[in-house]
UniProtKB/TrEMBL annotation:
Record protein name field: ATP-dependent zinc metalloprotease FtsH
Residues bound to ATP: G57, P58, P59, G60, T61, G62, K63, T64
Role description: Acts as a processive, ATP-dependent zinc metallopeptidase for both cytoplasmic and membrane proteins. Plays a role in the quality control of integral membrane proteins.
Source species: Compostibacter hankyongensis
Compartments, as annotated in UniProt: Cell membrane
Section of the entire sequence shown: 185 to 456 of 679
Domain AAA+ ATPase: 49-188
């Protein structure tokens, strides 16, 4: 439903413990968390706290999770919207949604505003197929106006996620806007093992489960795919009347998830 475009300042109880791997990104975002927790420490010496930070990486790698964890760690409200939610809106609605979001956020500061899929509204002029360009530009312009309109001491930090930083309008990347970038990669073998550990926690595991084998069986998987595998495996085991989830269930779940990923790729590659 498009009725609610953003979660209104929800408190989140996700922390960095819920985010497996991504060690370098975590170090960088911890700095941002400290800006929110101790702004005076920085402004006292005349420093300007950054307003915007871009999380760049492929789908399902934990950008949203990391943004929520930042809010959880800083213990501030979390506001979010998705660029793609603005695609079908009527003229003028996108800009007014952005205005409302920032108005509410200012009242709740310190806080985090998270904009997922910012490329849907933040594409360079003339490169967007989905939305009429005027309307998209109105929305983008309003976002820029809002970002320029609050001081660095206002306690609002805006995070935006994209997997296409190359298509973004350069106006978004200027100093005082999204001038910091944090890159999030797909997990390597060790990273996948850590993500499996997180998502295996709630699962009734058979003693034959081997996390390093699972990590080795899932090259190219993003965190979201691994979460999906763990859930599928539990469902498969349950369907077969088991009381524990076994390695065989994970084999089947991995096959199923790979099948799903292949189907997705087929849809976007023509000629198949
Ligand atoms: P998209 O670009 O598609 O919005 P995203 O990068 O924002 O993706 P998330 O929505 O944060 O990805 O990830 C989806 C889910 O995948 C998370 O809720 C979590 O369950 C799991 N996940 C992804 N990465 C990790 C990780 N590093 N550690 C633990 N879980 C992860």
């Amino acid at each position: 439903s498009k009725a609610q475009l953003f979660e209104k300042g929800a408190r989140v109880n996700i922390t960095f413990n819920d985010v497996a791997g991504l060690d370098e990104a975590k170090v960088e975002v911890m700095e941002v968390v400290d800006f929110l927790k101790n702004p005076k420490k920085y402004t006292m010496l005349g420093g300007k706290i950054p307003k915007g930070c871009l999380l760049v990486g492929p789908p399902g790698t934990g950008k949203t999770l990391l943004a929520k964890a930042m809010a959880g760690e800083a213990q501030v409200p979390f506001f979010s919207m998705s660029g793609s939610d603005f695609v079908e809106l009527f003229v003028g609605v996108g800009a007014s949604r952005v205005r409302d979001l920032f108005k509410t956020a200012r009242e709740k500061a310190p806080c985090i505003i998270f904009i997922d899929e910012i490329d849907a509204i933040g594409r360079a002029r003339g490169k967007n197929m989905m939305m009429s360009n005027d309307e998209r530009e109105n929305t983008l312009n309003q976002l820029l106006v809002e970002m320029d309109g609050f001081g660095t001491d206002s306690g609002i930090i805006i995070l935006a996620a994209t997997n296409r930083p190359d298509v973004l309008d350069s106006a978004l990347l200027r100093p005082g806007r999204f001038d910091r970038q944090i890159t999030i990669e797909k997990p390597d073998l060790a990273g996948r093992a850590k993500i499996f550990e997180v998502h295996l926690k709630p699962i009734k595991k058979s003693p034959d489960l081997d996390i390093s084998k699972l990590a080795a069986m899932t090259p190219g998987f993003a965190g979201a795919d691994i979460a999906n595998v763990c859930n599928e495996a539990a469902l498969i085991a349950a369907r077969n009347g088991k009381s524990q989830v076994e390695m065989q269930d994970f084999n089947d779940a991995i096959d199923r998830v790979i099948g799903g990923l292949e189907k997705k790729n087929k849809i976007i590659s023509p000629g198949e």
